[in-house]
Amino acid sequence: MRSLIVGAGAIGQFCAARLAQGGSDVVIMARPQQAEAINAQGIELRVNGSASTLQVRAAADVADAGLRDPFELVIVAVKAYSTADAVRTIAGIPATRDASILTVQNGLGNEETLAEAFGAERIVAGALTVAVDRLGATSISASSKGGLSVAPVGSNPHNWIIAAFNESGMTVRAAAHWQELKWSKLLINILGNGVCAALDWLPEQVYADRTAFVVERRCLLEALKVMSQRGLAPINLVDFPTTLLAASAKTLPVDVLRVVLRKRVARGRGGKLPSLLMDLRAHRPQTEVIALNGAVAAHAARSGMEASANAKVAEVVSGIASEKLNWNDYRGHPERLTIKDS
Question: Would the pLDDT of 267 be above 80?
Fold first, then answer.
């Protein structure tokens, strides 16, 4: 199978390495300097202390000769705010014309954007629950836990994608409903993420502070309420019991839930910093918070509901990233994220 990976960050390199392990012919789109490094060194994948170097071709321009032969699969692995750029890249490569397009991006709205550009029948939603960390320009580490859950956006099942990843030894499962898949992944992504970024705290600090955790729990409950209103139910993802998370959030007392989730969230991240916190500490002007907490608030508003905690987290993190808000006003001040009930 011939695959194209759009996005050469940690997730893109992980997907490229895994497919290469399974025998696929892989090309990854990267910036010029990174493409040169990947072509020279390959991609080093570390799992449980064991390292493998996979030879993957990298391209920095849609006119690259390595992009001429037809692709069966395209994987979109860019940040949610770069999906429109990914669409233009894919559209500019004639060899992707008949390819299935799998998005392993976080957040909501990516599938709709891709379906509008290429048709729903070609799009597959993916939820990756492997903790992946970037060690260097061409080196990544990944947890042995987790895997990939996939669901078609259209009626075409695309089951051959499961077989392609299974060849690499990664656990892959099919899900029946792509929106339930993406919302379930969103529940995981908002844990120990947006609140951490706003406060400049690690997850263990958020979970040790009752005021901060109340905001965290409220974000989760708002997302579950919007899901319910839309007729969606949480589904379990590979090595992550999302249905248990949802039930616990609804039924357990705050302080009990705080203890339960503290270890689970830290373990699920595999020691990796929350993505939104990494973005703010790196002074990136954009983050994925709009596709995460912001998406919950937007869907709630369209349904005549409120998701004030998610709206507040999205507003603060976006404001800090754009330098419209002073991070020092929120660092270590969870009370500034609280919303009074109307």
Answer: no
All residues at 6 or more sequence positions from 98 whose CB lies less than 8 Å from its CB, including other chains: 70, 72
The whole-number pLDDT of residue 25 equals 96
CB 96 within 8 Å of CB 68: no
Query: In the prediction, which pLDDT does 167 show?
Result: 87
CB distance 132 to 147 below 8 Å:
no
Under 8 Å CB-to-CB from 265, ≥6 apart: which residues?
191, 192, 203, 207
Q: How far apart are CA 225 and CA 58, in angstroms?
A: 43
CB atoms within 10 A of CB 92: 12
At 230, list the tokens: 């839309």
**SS3 call for 327:** helix
Alpha carbon 60 to its chain's center: 23
Residue with tokens 């690690």: 202
Report which DSSP code applies to 274. P
Cβ atoms of 156 and 118 within 8 Å: the answer is no
Cα atoms found within 13 Å of the Cα of residue 308, Cβ hemisphere only: 7
Can you tell me the mean pLDDT for 115-144?
96
Model confidence at 342, in pLDDT bands (50, 70, 90)? very low
Q: In what order do the strands lie in the sheet with 123-128?
A: 57-59, 25-29, 2-6, 73-76, 100-103, 123-128, 148-152, 172-174
Say whether pLDDT at 184 is over 80. yes
| Region for residue 203 given its phi and psi (left: phi exceeds 0; alpha: psi -120 to 50; beta: otherwise) | alpha
pLDDT-based confidence at 220, cuts 50/70/90?
very high
Q: Which residues are 123's β-sheet partners?
A: 101
Answer yes or no: are the C-beta atoms of 8 and 58 closer than 8 Å.
yes
Band of the pLDDT at 337, cuts 50, 70, 90?
Answer: very high
The answer to whether residues 226 and 305 touch, using CB atoms and an 8 Å cutoff, is yes
Beta bridge partner(s), residue 75:
5, 102
Q: Helices (H) and strands (E) in the chain — how many of each?
A: 14, 12
Tokens of residue 142, six digits: 């990944």
